[in-house]
Amino acid sequence: MCGLAGIHLDAPGATADPAALKRMVAAIRHRGPDGSGFHVEPGLGLGHARLSIIDLAGGAQPLCNEDETIWISYNGEVFNYVELRRMLEQRGHQFRTSTDTEVIVHLYEERGDDFVHELNGQFAFALWDRPRRRLLLVRDRAGILPLYYARVRNGLLFASEVKALLASREIDAALDPDALDETFTFWAPLAPRTLFKGVSQVCPGEMVVLQDGRLERRPWWRWQFPADGQHRTGPEPGLQQELHALLADATQVRLRADVPVGAYLSGGLDSSALVALLNRSVPETLRTFSIGFDDAGLDETEHQQCMVGHLRTENFRIHCSLADVATGFPATIFHTESTVLRTAPAPMRLLSGLVHQSGIKVVLTGEGADEVLGGYDIFKESKVRQFWARHPDSAWRPGLLKRLYPYLDLTSAQSAAYLKEFFGVGLDRPGDPFFSHLPRWATTAQCKLFYSEEFRRRLDGSATERLRATLPDDIGRWHPFNRSEYLEARTLLPSYLLSSQGDRMLMANSVEGRFPFLDHRLIAFANSLHPRHKMRVLREKHLLREAMRADLPDAIRRRHKQPYRAPDAAAFLQGPTPDYVKQLLGSECIGRYGYFDPDKVGRLVAKLQRARVHAARDNMAFVGILSTQLWHRQFVEGRGVA
Amino acid sequence: MSDDLRQRIQRFILENYLFTSDPGALAPDASLLGRGIVDSTGMLEIIMFIEEQLGVTVADAEMVPENLDSVERIAAFVEAKRGRT
Lengths: 642, 85
What we know:
The structure holds two protein chains of two kinds.
Chain A: E1 3-9, H1 18-27, E2 35-41, E3 44-50, E4 63-64, E5 70-78, H2 81-90, H3 100-111, E6 121-129, E7 134-139, E8 148-152, E9 155-159, H4 162-167, H5 177-186, E10 200-201, E11 206-211, E12 214-219, H6 236-253, E13 261-264, H7 269-281, E14 287-293, H8 301-311, E15 314-320, H9 322-336, H10 345-357, E16 362-364, H11 369-373, H12 377-389, H13 416-423, H14 438-444, H15 453-457, H16 463-468, H17 480-507, E17 512-514, H18 520-528, H19 531-534, H20 542-547, H21 554-557, H22 569-573, H23 579-585, H24 587-593, H25 598-610, H26 616-637
Parallel strand pairs in A: 13-14, 13-16, 14-15, 16-17
Antiparallel strand pairs in A: 1-3, 1-9, 2-3, 4-5, 5-6, 6-7, 7-11, 8-9, 8-10, 11-12
Helix pairs in contact in A: 2-3, 6-7, 6-18, 9-10, 9-26, 10-17, 12-17, 24-25, 25-26
Chain B: H1 3-18, H2 40-53, H3 65-68, H4 71-84
Helix pairs in contact in B: 1-4
């Protein structure tokens, strides 16, 4: 993958400042340390930082078509470029490189704006159509790669990361209060909003068109499900074969690279399935990468070793200590450019560092499987709550919830009466599209207790109602399971998992991630299926488990999902507290930045320091407050300069 | 009912769940669950507080909202238990 940056000026004859463009590209050099390139013409400047993966010698960007009328600066991979190129050559297009980038340029010439539908991959790019003086900013379907833009006094800035926009010196960083409020509800702002006031992101599956001074947002793909009752069903063996073939092909095309490809191995079903499929295709010993923790409740080493032994991969490991999380957290937030409610991205940055040191530029990961194939506990929780909502007075029905969270520190305090209180929210509204997510969002929203009064006055409306206003018109006709899948795919997946925990942590060390489970053909197949094929009673990812029967040891295939977690507040408070934490959470700094109440934050820190057990919501509040303070220091005060 | 006991419980909940010392922030009869003041781990902390600070053991069958869902209820529960021992 790479980084891109650019300046579009409203006045057609105006010239983009080459020094500003260079600063913008330099700010995202970690995304592409292998080279940089620039193209400046009246009204436009395009920049690019390159990570060489395909056509190592000939793939410099920005690049153009035969007569230099169409220009592109591109970040990503189109995995079906071989097939697309063949078709384009048959239609007379001349190629100067063997890159996937050039395929996009010619495909745009051939198909116009519909070209995006033919791309199978992960991408974010700026395409300039000089004759029509038209700029397209395009982002892939699921939102694997980022793309931001901001209106400025004389035009539009765009880039892969916000720090590049700040490097132009045309905009200042300021926090959007509603974006923080959305983060303390959904874990991330709702696209196109970002934590930076005045900076938007191209939404997943969206194309932003700038022409004649008018900016238009055009969705070109979305998560779509059939009306309830119109799902695809069929004999399971056939569906299992189809899923296996699709996943094998999605993995195979993601091996297209002129550099070696490795894989993340968590020890769970998803990454193990990919590694098993990869191992069939890669002739040399596959290199896999894993994280271990001191805390036995978080560590998956035993399962990772089981797969390494089964498939004989060469496994590289990091062991992440509490101090590693705390020491690396400022750099982590520099790359997330967002508030986060968990420290989980921090070890992912260390892991990509290990990949980089090992000489690998590309890794496959299992991210996306839980959204596409029905893996999350929230789907089960919702299923039980739907079942319970039919007889709200039942004492037995909510007891099923106890089966969902075996990895939590359950005690008898979690009696049916308490489960009813915690999970009973919204039980009277089973038809509400938000039914599945109300308990989670209510828990997360407890962090808002720490807002300062002044900050609270700056908020405008309700985060959940803003989401409600943008739901698909037909969501009411979808099966409840599909509604909850949609909410995950719309909120947590692109803006947190694929961004803060995904692209940003990979690119911090110049490593490209590839996501076979997010192949759009696989998504279309999975979304068409009746939910019972994904979740059999309360067994998650049923079809995937069955489809991988011949490839995986039973111990892995039957494993209950363990969410990836890292130590949160304990990382900062159990050992010596780093000075930056004391400073940023001190009452002077909390008061000066203005988002939180200094007295309440002080009490939270004191409580966490003396507590033996940290409550989930206290952990979330602590990490959310600390990361917001770090964000402010690095971007508002530090202007995003490393 | 002992005002001192009620105040200790109220102070614990204010300090640990509402992060304030303002008694006006929590009415003695306010539902801790209904207002989202405690979550599942929070209940563990309350039970630990009752056992370690107030010297009363909470049996499994007693871990129900009727005993633990407000300052008033916790105080009444603790007093009743103390009276029985």
